[in-house]
Structure prediction request, 154 residues.
Amino acid sequence: MISLINSKAPEFDLADASGNKITLSHFKGKWLVIFFYPKDDTPSCTKEACNFRDDYSVINSLGANVIGISLDRTTSHQKFKEKYQLPFMLLSDVQGAVAKKYGALFKFMFIKFAKRHSFIIDPHGLIRKEYRSINSSTHSIQIIEDLKSLQLSK
Prediction:
């Protein structure tokens, strides 16, 4: 896998849980955390999303937005957001095109899903940190620590 660190973050144009189109340019000038995950409402994905929910105010206080992306449909995202009161956007990448651009797409015969990969994107649209191996129980804390370090080094 080729590292994307210090490269321009791939653009996207995806629907959120309410069907609104969201692009990378919506976040220009701000820090952004993108986490790809396999499936709404599954044990590890729920744990990861709920930890981001619980740490959202800290991440947000660091000037960062959070978005989750999976291949699930917007209706699935809406139910997942409501069930767990997730305060951040979930974007629907049904075809997996965005996951592929970020190196997060898994395909095997007829099975296709987003791997559990995350990225921190700086206010200039550069990928500053990538995570290819994630512990869903501690990942949001790792993101907070790395955001602080990246912001101090600027």
Notes: The chain has a mean pLDDT of 94.
